[in-house]
Design goal:
By secondary structure, this protein is mainly α. It has one domain: Winged helix-like DNA-binding domain superfamily/Winged helix DNA-binding domain (Arc Repressor Mutant, subunit A), CATH 1.10.10.10. It is 61% helix and 0% strand. It contains four helices and no strands. Helix 1 packs across helix 3 and helix 2 crosses helix 3.
């Protein structure tokens, strides 16, 4: 059974980065964003998924087979 959560393209990029183990500073640098912007966007991901950190997010995605779309290696 797959659960769908409506994520924006940026949120999908952030989820991919979190699943790769990147931190907010690294994500911000790589995407050309301010670190606070990344934190604000991740807050939206936490609200949408109910996860409170990267580990919970990864476990939620794997155990519930949540479709987060294509997660490119950037």
């Amino acid at each position: 059974m797959s659960v769908e959560i409506d994520l924006t393209p940026l949120e999908r990029q952030l989820v991919a980065a979190i699943l790769r183990g990147e931190g907010t500073r690294e994500i911000a640098r790589r995407l050309g964003l301010k670190e606070q912007t990344v934190k604000n966007e991740l807050a939206g991901v936490w609200r949408k998924t109910g996860a409170s950190n990267g580990l919970e997010l990864a476990l939620l995605i794997v155990t519930h087979r949540i479709d987060v779309g294509v997660l490119p290696e950037e």
